[in-house]
Amino acid sequence: MIGFIRGKLVSKTPPQLVIDVQGVGYEVEAPMTTFYDLPTIGTELTLFTHLVVREDAHILFAFSTEPDRLMFRTLIKVNGIGPKLALTILSGQSAEEFHRCIHDNDINALVRLPGVGKKTAERLIIEMRDRLPKISDSMNTEEGQSNSHISDQNPKKEAISALCALGYKPQDASKMVQSIAQQDKSCEDIIRLALQGVTAK
Question: Are residues 146 and 36 in contact, defined by beta-carbon separation less than 8 angstroms?
Fold first, then answer.
């Protein structure tokens, strides 16, 4: 198991990062909560990782904090929740918001996430309720501050592409982005506001 990865950040195109570790470029996938904390390109960073082995691929998922990785590992233990859907859940809601949904049995908030239907939301609430207290012991719910940009080229297009990669339909992703005043906003800012808009409905 690969526990963490340390190297220089080469590129960041949600949900994928490339990290240069002594001349080897590792492709990893990360939730938007991790993207919000990323430094500028060329900066050295350390990310906590989880390796998923499939017949056709080995996929490395990366997280800025251990509690985020713990939440991911707990989510994929839920019946019907795979790594991709777990990544989408972590991207669409903060840990604090997710805790509130589980505690308040808020099915409506969960089904707004792509790939989460009513039955999946109900299963999440039932199976995660007993596991959340253990996660809370190590969970840091303070929002990370970042002054980095995911992309300086066509942030609107990059944001739509990122939302599609997270599971949103192209037309829905486009509507989410179009509803945001984009002047002087980075791709990162647009994605953050788009996801906040979905969970606030």
Answer: yes
